[in-house]
Design a protein that fits this description.
Layout (H helix, E strand, L loop, with lengths): L25 E4 L3 H16 L17 E2 L12 H9 L2 E2 L33 E2 L1 E2 L12 H4 L3 H9 L10 E3 L4 E5 L2 H10 L11 E7 L2 E7 L9 E7 L6 H9 L5 H10 L6 H6 L4 H11 L2 H4 L1 E7 L5 E2 L8 H12 L3 H20 L1 H4 L1 E2 L4 E6 L5 E6 L5 E2 L21 H15 L6 H6 L13
Parallel strand pairs: 1-8
Antiparallel strand pairs: 2-4, 3-5, 6-7, 7-9, 8-9, 10-11, 10-14, 11-12, 13-16, 14-15
Helix pairs in contact: 11-14, 12-14
The structure holds adenosine-5'-triphosphate and D-MYO-inositol-1,4,5-triphosphate.
Catalytic activity: 1D-myo-inositol 1,4,5-trisphosphate + ATP = 1D-myo-inositol 1,3,4,5-tetrakisphosphate + ADP + H(+)
Pfam family, one: IPK
GO molecular function: ATP binding; inositol hexakisphosphate kinase activity; inositol-1,4,5-trisphosphate 3-kinase activity
């Protein structure tokens, strides 16, 4: 979740050349090389792309993406089947303007851009549309195909960013991705080395530089899956930092973008004053999001789901009640009880690890997600991602992660949310909820003190 700001230099980051420490190793790719790699990839793609006419793809074989009318831009990457569809030249896809590879514009853009997320995070189911007619666009304008060598294609076709900020991710070497640098997140990655949580967070490969910008280099959790189903659940009862609350109180800064997002979902959301100023403060928006979704009543919320059939949904802002959440989970896992069991096992392991973790005890974990991934082979995993807003507590202070938040105590409700999440999945399982969780999780058990912004 690193925010805009100016570009970081290695000096800003306190990095000098290649540090000995693996955690702070900076990889560099020479500026200009990317263009060359891109050209090579274009060249290769032109020769390996499935085509009935020698090496070069014909315009009519180019897949694009369609967002259904109710939709905005769902984060969406090309899927394997898209490629297959492209091969027989029968499908055509349109892509929302905010999404990656939207316009079929110049192929000069970086291949990495194909991993970028779109502007709006939600709302659309992507569908295929059969090609009736063809537009003749030169193949070199169609960046959806020309960027990847065949070996790299499969992984990239699988990749999806379900939540978070646009453009935060880039492709990297086989099985890895780059996330925009945040000092806070880097520190967290370094601190979990040696902690009980290590087996549950993506492997961290250090800091990487691309064309003067810095990134956290980490394992791509989707890489080893075959057409994965992916779900992002944001954990905790609170999604903003206490310091954001304090700042907004001291210097309230109503934001129009947040006001617009609020009105888009619920016209009656803003107060009369917010309507007249056409702005809401960040904590106010975040609290509204929390109470509208299941963050407040369950301690987690669903941010997005991508299924193996290529459909992608991030329109869960109002998915709040336990039965509604259970229904979404049920749909996500299909009727596969084996997958549910694997997820439950993994969640129990994560729970044990959290309880044993020194890192967890000493950090306020805000905005972090659990990423659920499974595929048709029966493989199912859950990973802890996004430490962008995970903050160390003052020396000597620890959190229970299970008691209600009151301003000042910095509790995040993570464990309470995890128990509710486990209970939700148990309800999805054919065996129903177990005794243990049934007794200690209850919807709406936690009340939070918002401090009102
Ligand atoms: N290591 C990873 N492997 C595969 N996919 C990942 C990985 N990390 C993140 N993602 C994808 O990217 C999305 C956003 O990740 P993340 O939450 O880290 O981004 P962010 O920009 O910090 O989000 P936010 O703005 O909510 O804090 C996830 O929902 C997931 O789809
Ligand atoms: O999910 P929505 O409704 O799109 O709302 C965004 C979401 O809650 C992000 O977590 C938050 O970023 P942080 O977690 O980094 O605070 C972002 O704040 P931002 O607009 O200030 O980036 C919100 O706009």
């Amino acid at each position: 979740m690193p925010k805009g700001g100016r570009r970081r230099t290695s000096k800003d980051l306190g990095l000098c050349g290649t540090a000995a420490n693996e955690g702070s190793r900076v990889e560099r790719r020479a500026p200009g090389k990317q263009g060359q790699v891109c050209d090579e990839l274009q060249h290769k793609a032109a020769h390996v792309a499935p085509s009935s006419h020698g090496g070069v793809m014909e315009p009519r074989q180019v897949p694009q993406v369609t967002i259904t009318p109710e939709g905005g831009g769902c984060s969406r990457e090309m899927q394997q089947e898209d490629w297959d569809d492209a091969a027989d030249g029968t499908l055509r896809r349109h892509l929302s303007s905010s999404s990656i590879s939207s316009t079929g514009s110049s192929a000069v853009e970086s291949e990495d851009d194909l991993l970028s997320d779109n502007e709006s995070k939600s709302k659309g189911i992507i569908t295929l549309e059969h090609l009736v007619d063809t537009e003749s666009k030169p193949w070199w304008k169609l960046k959806t195909i020309v960027h990847w060598s065949f070996s790299a294609q499969r992984r990239k076709l699988n990749w999806v960013q379900l939540a978070g900020h646009k453009g935060n991710f880039k492709a990297a070497d086989e099985g890895t991705i780059l996330k925009k640098f945040s000092d806070n997140e880097k520190q967290c990655f370094e601190e979990v080395q040696g902690d009980a949580l290590l087996p549950f967070v993506p492997a961290f490969h250090g800091v990487a530089e691309r064309d003067g910008e810095f990134f956290l280099h980490m394992t791509d959790l989707l890489a080893k899956f075959d057409l994965p189903n992916v779900m992002d659940c944001k954990m905790g009862v609170r999604t903003y930092l206490e310091e954001e609350l304090v700042r907004a109180r001291e210097r309230p800064k109503p934001r129009e973008d947040l006001y617009k997002k609020m009105v888009e979902v619920d016209e009656t959301g803003p107060t009369p004053q917010e309507h007249s100023q056409r702005g809401v403060t960040k904590p106010r928006y975040m609290q509204w999001r929390e109470t509208l979704s299941s963050t407040h009543n369950l301690g987690f919320r669903i941010e997005g789901i991508k299924k193996c059939d290529g459909t992608c949904r991030t329109d869960f802002k109002k998915t709040k009640s336990k039965p509604d959440v259970i229904q979404v989970f049920r749909d996500f896992v299909g009727r596969d009880d084996g997958i549910v069991k694997s997820y439950l096992r993994r969640l129990s392991e994560i729970r044990r690890a959290l309880q044993a973790s020194e890192f967890f005890k000493r950090h306020e974990v805000i905005g972090s997600s659990l990423l659920f991934i499974h595929d048709h082979t029966g493989s199912a995993e859950v990973w802890i991602i996004d430490f962008g807003k995970t903050t160390a507590l003052p020396e000597g202070q620890t959190l229970s992660h299970a008691i209600p938040w009151q301003e000042g105590n910095r509790e995040d409700g993570y464990l309470w949310g995890l128990d509710n999440l486990i209970h939700t999945l148990e309800c999805v399982s054919s065996q129903g909820p177990g005794e243990e969780t049934r007794s200690d999780t209850k919807e709406d058990q936690q009340t939070t003190e918002t401090g009102g912004q």
